[in-house]
Each structure stands twice: as structure tokens, then as C-alpha cells.
Specification:
The structure holds 2 protein chains of 2 kinds. Chain A is of the alpha/beta class. Chain A is built from 23 helices and 20 strands. In chain A, helix 9 links the parallel strand 7 (177-181) and strand 8 (209-214). Chain A starts with a strand and ends in an 11-residue tail after the last helix. By secondary structure, chain B is mainly α. Chain B has 16 helices and no strands. The A-B interface holds A 54, 57, 59, 61, 86-92, 95-96, 98, 100, 103-109, 117-118, 121-122, 153, 155-156, 169 and B 213-215, 217-225, 228, 232-233, 236-237, 312-313, 316, 318.
């Protein structure tokens, strides 16, 4: 069956820019989708993936406008179709799965009422039929307690479950096409693999056609028959998944396919080196809720210790304890062999200077009303009392160190890209000439290539200054690339720690194993293989950890 | 204890403290005013001897703190005291007035709140369109006119020209409900015009604010009609601010209607208080003041409880 389900031809979409003009955000995109096939839409943020995906429902976000082109669903033109006709297609023949299910479910209603709503409103199923269908699909997507699941409110259900519930919501009306918009991006890696497997099985068994939008090529390779690569609203390349992965023709696609190029050669374990920073038996809690339990770790000069774990594992709390933002319940933090006062206010200026922090979101970590010079200059005057002229010179030096031109000193954060903002944050940390920089998910808000460049910069700076990094992340690819030592955390405890070689070479701790094997690999069939492997090992009676159903 | 119950108890205790502070302020305020009840009663005939005699008679020659404590302890026993001007028990004086005030406020609320919310929803549904703008213009012009002006305007049109409604809202005990409603029709209309705009604009703003949420986009992508999206998905999530503004306006209907009472010669609490201030009848001022303050405290508490009940996260904890 090769009848065309969806064909988009030469689509142009514009968004109103801040100055009031129109700016094209989708520029001549065409795609074709047959019944029962999955097309992967891939690109970095701002590539126009979601905009194209939403266009398949004849929808544009507020402030956007369809300029020209054609969107044909089963031969029917959606471009310029009257609102009422589009409304009857949306939620009935084409459905949508949003990135953040937590935000896309209405908090005021029970899940099932929302899940069956479109099927009932469009007159596709009666309420009873829709409930029966929803229950069948809960089971299919391996949601717990299918008979009662729908009675819960969105806030009573975990993120992974919500994402599956949203997939159920998209499938109940028996649509021709489902648009998945980054359905697993907000999830932990071990949850992601389960949701991905559930979506894949559902697409296969229900013979759905789908558009699967993501920035993660390895992920989409598991599910898509064909892949369309977008960059800045333009098509870069389109082809069968296998071809895109193995024989990319465009340089941009080749860059996407290439695994990370950043790599820190493993440094020899310094046997008797004095630890720079030591965390000794720390327990911490928010109110009565314990978050960290018995944490011990050491950080040495010139080395990078990666702390890995999923959301809620206590990684960021550890950073808060070390910086003094959260005094520990028990245990202590030592710097250069000296115990540090537990609270921020009891620490002296020199102690504060030696530990700096770089945050996950550069957008919110910089004061939008301060120029870069003030941002980087503040620690210079605070810690070293530099005068105006010396300060300006040092700011320019630091900007050069993070590979930004000195002119950036006169700009505001709003005028910088995400990667440039993160460089300013790094320069601000460096300005204090610290011994330790705590990097809290510093690359997770950045696109892959920008993230790589930031990582390379961090490694260069370490080689030049000998600063030690405590690198908090959930991204195992980053850990593989740059860590000397690895600490694996789960539910506030350290489950395993050691040098990179120790941790990454089997045998692993069961949780480390689960984490490592859940990272998608750039290979068609990886998902099926890993699931088969897990099933086989379980059948042999090996101890395998399942992702806690968060 | 259930968290909601604990909140209610906590707030009631705080409310009692608030009332105490209010009583101090009112008492101090009336002390600062020049003249006292004796001079007010005697007017032109106020010879120093006569004034002193009346003061002694009413116990006004005692120090202020003593009179205040007397009043406070009386209040704790449930005794509001007696009026200084006509020697009537204040409880009796207030009872009928309070009933009238609550009747007028309730009637106005029953008319105004549904109208305001319905207009707010319509304005949000047809945002930036002609209907939205028309609603905004009408409600804003009605709020921009002073209450007494609206009152006299309505009297001129509906009482003087059309003979549809009475110009004086006289009510008395034992009156049939229908007659009472007829009597207060113009004051209710005036109050409605005054309070609708505020509530309508907040309803509109709260709904439009919620309309930016991802779940509204999702509802749109589910192919729901705009009306269904607003009623089913936006309104329930916009309830908290709407409840708050409705309650502020209810409080206003109870305590802020003195001008309307005067225009329509309506025997309500507000008039009683204004009279008492003019006559320096401190115990009556105290009693009405406490009633008004208690109304605010209780209504605000009700708003918070309702806002919690409207939030499924708090209604159905994990």
C-alpha cells in the first residue's frame, strides 16, 4: 500500500519578529508520508521541526503565519482550509503528542476524561467505547492498574506515565497520523527507553503513521523508516534511516551522525595526591525529607569527577551542600584538608572564592540588565578589589579565554546566543580563580554541537589552570567524553564510584548497567537489540534492574 | 488536623487579632475627632455646665483607656453596649440595619456576579473582537461614573420618567419578598453597574492568562471548539483569581455602599455608621466598624478556602 497519507509541498511559515516584521522560520520544506510509516524530523532548536509538525494539523502557533505551500492530508488541502474543517481533522484524523505531558494535560480534570475527550467530541466513539479503548491502550503501553489509572489527576502520575498517557490520548480516536513532538526529551534516560519501546510497539501494532520530532538522531533511528533533517527552517537531507546514518551526503548531517569528538585522554590515577575537595559522610535533607545519605567523595587538582544520576537522585543537592547553600545534616566538606563552615554565611571570602558554580540554564543565571563587563567584573572587584581599568583589562582577558571577542564586554545577555551565554557564565566562574568549579548540567540546555564546543573549552581551561571540575550531569555521553572519575548516584546515595575505566568497563553495578545500556546508540535496531538482551538475561535469571516507574 | 481545617482555625485566630487592632484604631480615631457626643447633642445650647453634666451622665469624664476596656470586656461577654445618643441597646439598633444591608448586598451579588463572569467569559472568547471591545467600553464607562451619579441617573430615567421603579428604597420588617425586591431594584442596579466592571475584567484577564498554557494548545490540537476550550479547560484553571476578585467585591457590597444607601434613603448599616460618627456616638461606631472588619476577614477566608477547593492538586494530594 503506497497511497500517500500526507504530502507537504514547499511550505513557508513566518513568525512575527520582535521588531514587528515577518521572519521565515520554515523555508520551503516538503515531505511525503505513506500510510503506516514513520518519518523522523530531526534538527537542533530553532530548526522549525515543531512548526512543520504542527502544520500537519493545519495549526500554527500564536504569532506565526502560513505563507505559502500545500499541506495535503489524504488528498485534502489543509492550507487555507476554513477553521471548522481543520477543527474536525484535529484530534480525529491527526493527533498530537506534546513534549511535556506534565504541561499539556489540563490539571483540573481526571486523565481519562481528557484522554477520551477528542474521540467523544468528534463523535468517533461513544464515551463507553472510548473508555474501553483507553483501557486497552493503557495495557498496551504498560501503564499500571489499567482499570483505575484514568481516575487519577495529572499531578498524581509520574512523568514517564504521563507521556504514555498522552500517547494513549493520541491513539484513542484511531487517527491516520500521530505527530510526536519530542515525546521523551523531558524524561530520564532509563524512563525514555521504556516510553520509546511502548510508543514503537503501539505504532507497529496499531499500524499508525507518525511524524516523530526529536533532536536526538540516535533516538529517531530506532523508530523512523525515513528521516528528514532540518536546519534553520530549511531541508538539509531526506532519506531512509539506514542511509542517513551510514551514508549522509550533507556535511551538516555528517556532523550530526558523528559521535562526540571531544575526548579527554585518561590521566593516570594520582596515587598519593592530596585531595582538593573532600566530602565526608554527608547527609542532607530539605525539611524532613532526606535527600542525601552518607556521601563520600574526593576531588583532585586537574581532574574531573562526574556525578551521574537521574532526576531526583540528589546530584544538584550535593552541589548545594558543597557550595554552602544547604548546610548538611551530618558530615563535612573539606577544602585543602581544612573543614569548610557548613553554611554560606559563615565562610570567608577566600573560601567562597575557591569554589565556583556554573548553572544549567545560562538564560536565567545572568542578570539581563547587566552588561557582560559587569557580570564578569563583579567577582573581580569583590574578590580582588580591582579598579576600573584593571578590571576591564582582566574582563577582556577572560573573554578571550572563553573564546569570545573583547567587544562582548559591552553587550547585554539578551544579545548573546545560548552557547555564548554559557561561556560568559564560565568566564564569571574563572574570574574568581577558583580551585573547584561545579558544573551543574552545563551543557544540557545547549544543542549538541554547541555543547561539544563548550566541553572542549572546559577541558582546555583545565589543562591551562589545573582547576578541578565536579561535573553534574545525566548525560552519559558527556561523562564518557570528559570524566576522569565517575560517581553514580541513585535516590540520594552513591551506588558506585571509581575511575572512568573502572566504572565504564564491565562488570557494572546493576544500576550503572541500566544507565549505560539505556543511552541510545546511533545504530538502527539498537532498541530491539537492547530489549531482547535484557529479556534474555532476565530469562537466564541474572539480576537486572528495571527503571523505577517514576 | 486536616490542613484545610488548620488553615481555617489559624485564620480565624488571626482574624480575632485583626479585629482587636481595628477596634483600637476606631476608638483612637473617634478620640482624635474634635468635639464629643455631649457637644453634638446640645449643639447651639452647649454651655460648659450642660456639657459637663451630660459627660458625667454618660461616663465620658472617665479616662479613655477605661472606657475602651469597659467596651472591650462588654464585647467579650457579647454585650455591644448602649447608644450614647438615644440610650438604645446597640444590638437592637444594628440587627434590623444589618439585615437590610445583607439583603441589598446579597441581591446585588446574585445579579452582578453571574453577569460579570458571563461577560468576562464572552470577552475572553471573542478577545480583541467587536463584542470584547463593546463589553469593555460599557463596563469601563459604568465604573468611571461616580455611584451617586449613576443612582440619580437611574432614578431620573426609571422612577421619574418611566415610573417603573420606586425612587426611594424603603423597606420595613414583615414586607413580602417580592415587594422588597421591587423596592431595592434601583439600588441593586446601581451597585451592579459599579461592581461588574472589576469582576468582568479580572475574569477576562484570568482566562486569557490561562489561554497561554500548553494544555490549551493541546485542547486546540484535539479539535475542541473554542467555547468548549474556554468553559472546560480555561475557566476551571482561572478560578482562583476570579474567586478573589468576586470576594473583594462582595465585601465592598457589604461595607462600601453608604453612598448608595444615602441616595436611595435605604436604612442600612452604612447610614447608621455615618450618623454615629457625626454624633460622636463611639460605641455605635465601634460596633459597626467591627461588623465591617469581621465581614472582610470572613469573606477573605472564604475566598482562600474556595481557591484551595478549586485546585485539584490540593483537593487530591498524591
Amino acid at each position: 500500500m503506497t497511497e500517500l497519507l500526507l504530502s507537504i509541498t514547499d511550505l513557508h511559515i513566518a513568525a512575527r519578529s520582535e521588531q514587528g516584521g515577518l521572519q521565515e522560520i520554515v523555508n520551503g520544506v516538503s515531505l511525503r508520508l505513506e500510510h503506516g510509516t514513520v518519518l523522523g524530523l530531526i534538527g537542533e532548536s530553532g530548526a522549525g521541526k515543531s512548526t512543520v509538525g504542527l502544520a500537519a494539523l493545519g495549526y500554527t502557533r500564536h504569532g506565526c503565519r502560513l505563507l505559502s505551500g500545500s499541506i495535503r492530508l489524504n488528498g485534502e488541502e489543509l492550507f487555507g482550509a476554513p477553521y471548522e474543517k481543520l477543527r474536525q481533522i484535529r484530534g480525529a484524523r491527526v493527533t498530537y503528542v506534546a513534549q511535556s505531558a506534565a504541561a499539556a494535560f489540563d490539571p483540573a480534570h481526571r486523565l481519562e476524561d481528557q484522554i477520551i475527550e477528542s474521540a467523544v467530541v468528534h463523535g468517533i466513539l461513544s464515551p463507553e467505547e472510548a473508555r474501553r479503548e483507553a483501557r486497552r491502550l493503557y495495557e498496551k503501553l504498560r501503564l499500571p492498574d489499567p482499570d483505575n489509572f484514568g481516575r487519577r489527576y495529572p499531578h498524581q502520575v509520574s512523568g514517564g506515565q504521563l507521556q504514555r498517557a498522552m500517547t494513549v490520548m493520541a491513539m484513542v480516536p484511531k487517527p491516520d497520523l500521530v505527530v510526536f513532538d519530542e515525546p521523551t526529551t523531558a524524561l530520564d534516560v532509563t524512563t525514555q527507553i521504556e516510553v520509546l519501546a511502548a510508543i514503537k510497539a503501539a505504532i507497529r501494532d496499531e499500524r499508525l503513521a507518525a511524524i516523530y520530532i526529536t533532536h536526538d538522531l540516535a533516538l529517531v533511528a530506532q523508530i523512523a523508516d525515513r528521516i528528514l533533517v532540518l536546519k534553520d527552517g530549511r531541508m538539509v537531507e531526506e532519506g531512509a534511516t539506514e542511509d542517513i546514518l551510514k551514508r549522509p551526503t550533507q556535511p551538516y548531517t555528517r556532523a550530526l551522525v558523528q559521535v562526540r569528538r571531544v575526548h579527554k585522554p585518561s590521566a593516570p590515577q594520582p596515587a598519593a595526591q592530596e585531595p582538593l575537595l573532600e566530602v565526608r559522610g554527608v547527609d542532607a535533607a530539605y525539611g524532613a525529607v532526606p535527600v542525601l545519605e552518607d556521601i563520600w567523595l574526593r576531588l583532585c587538582r586537574g581532574r574531573t569527577t562526574a556525578v551521574v544520576g537521574e532526576s531526583g537522585s540528589g546530584k544538584s543537592t550535593l552541589a548545594r551542600v558543597i557550595t554552602g547553600l544547604l548546610p548538611p545534616r551530618r558530615g563535612e566538606v573539606r577544602l585543602l584538608g581544612e573543614p569548610l563552615p557548613p553554611g554560606l554565611r559563615q565562610r570567608n571570602r577566600d573560601q567562597l572564592r575557591r569554589i565556583q558554580l556554573v548553572y544549567q540554564m545560562p538564560d536565567v543565571a545572568l542578570n539581563p540588565r547587566h552588561k557582560v563587563e559587569e557580570i564578569i567584573g563583579r567577582p573581580l572587584s569583590f574578590y580582588f578589589g580591582l579598579g576600573a581599568e584593571a578590571r576591564r583589562r582582566r574582563v577582556e582577558e577572560l573573554l578571550r579565554a572563553v573564546e569570545l571577542a573583547p567587544e562582548f564586554a559591552d553587550r547585554y545577555p539578551g544579545e548573546l546566543s545560548g552557547g555564548q551565554k554559557q561561556r560568559v557564565c564560565i568566564a564569571r566562574a574563572l574570574a574568581a580563580e577558583p580551585d573547584v568549579i561545579i558544573c551543574d548540567e552545563v551543557t544540557s540546555a545547549l544543542d549538541v554541537q554547541v555543547a561539544d564546543a563548550v566541553l572542549r573549552l572546559l577541558l582546555d581551561l583545565q589543562a591551562a589552570t589545573g582547576v578541578a571540575y565536579l561535573f553534574i550531569t545525566h548525560d552519559l555521553a558527556t561523562v564518557r567524553a570528559i570524566a576522569d572519575d565517575i560517581v553514580v548516584m541513585l535516590d540520594g546515595r552513591i551506588v558506585e564510584q571509581g575511575t572512568r575505566e573502572d566504572i565504564l568497563t564491565p562488570p557494572h553495578h546493576p544500576y550503572t548497567d541500566l544507565l549505560l545500556s539505556s543511552v541510545p546508540e546511533m545504530e538502527v535496531g539498537w532498541l530491539d537489540r537492547i530489549l531482547a538482551e535484557r529479556a534474555a538475561r532476565k530469562a537466564r535469571g541474572e539480576r537486572i534492574m528495571e527503571a523505577a516507574d517514576r | 488536623m486536616h490542613p484545610l481545617l488548620r488553615l481555617v482555625v489559624q485564620r480565624l485566630l488571626l482574624g480575632v487579632a485583626t479585629l482587636w487592632v481595628v477596634s483600637l484604631l476606631i476608638f483612637a480615631g473617634t478620640e482624635i475627632l474634635p468635639g464629643d457626643v455631649a457637644e453634638a447633642i446640645l449643639g447651639q445650647a452647649a454651655t460648659p455646665e450642660a456639657v459637663a453634666a451630660i459627660r458625667r451622665d454618660l461616663g465620658l469624664d472617665r479616662p479613655a483607656w477605661e472606657r475602651y476596656l469597659d467596651w472591650l470586656f462588654g464585647l467579650m461577654r457579647g454585650d455591644l453596649g448602649t447608644s450614647l445618643t438615644n440610650r438604645m441597646p446597640i444590638a437592637e439598633l444594628i440587627a434590623g440595619r444589618l439585615e437590610n444591608t445583607l439583603f441589598l448586598a446579597a441581591t446585588a451579588a446574585v445579579v452582578a456576579v453571574p453577569i460579570a463572569i458571563a461577560l468576562g467569559i464572552l470577552a475572553a472568547r471573542f478577545r480583541e473582537r467587536l463584542l470584547d471591545k463593546a463589553i469593555s467600553v460599557l463596563t469601563l464607562s459604568s465604573i468611571s461614573m461616580p455611584e451617586f451619579f449613576i443612582g440619580y441617573l437611574l432614578i431620573f430615567i426609571f422612577a421619574v420618567k418611566l415610573f417603573w421603579a420606586p425612587s426611594i428604597a424603603s423597606v420595613y420588617p414583615g414586607m413580602a419578598l417580592a415587594d422588597k425586591l421591587y423596592a431595592v431594584s434601583l439600588p441593586v442596579a446601581t451597585l451592579t453597574l459599579v461592581v461588574v466592571a472589576h469582576m468582568m475584567r479580572m475574569t477576562r484577564a484570568a482566562i486569557i492568562n490561562v489561554m497561554a498554557s500548553p494544555y490549551i494548545e493541546m485542547a486546540e490540537l484535539k479539535g475542541l471548539t473554542r467555547t468548549r476550550i474556554i468553559l472546560k479547560h480555561a475557566l476551571p484553571n482561572a478560578l482562583a483569581p476570579i474567586i478573589n476578585v468576586v470576594v473583594i467585591n462582595l465585601a465592598y457590597l457589604v461595607v462600601g455602599v453608604v453612598v448608595v444607601e444615602v441616595v436611595f434613603v435605604y436604612p442600612g448599616l452604612g447610614q447608621l455608621m455615618v450618623d454615629a460618627v457625626a454624633k460622636r456616638d463611639v460605641p455605635v461606631v465601634q460596633a459597626t466598624g467591627m461588623l465591617f472588619a469581621a465581614t472582610y476577614v470572613l469573606l477573605n477566608l472564604a475566598a482562600d478556602v474556595l481557591a484551595i477547593l478549586a485546585n485539584p492538586r490540593l483537593r487530591h494530594p498524591r
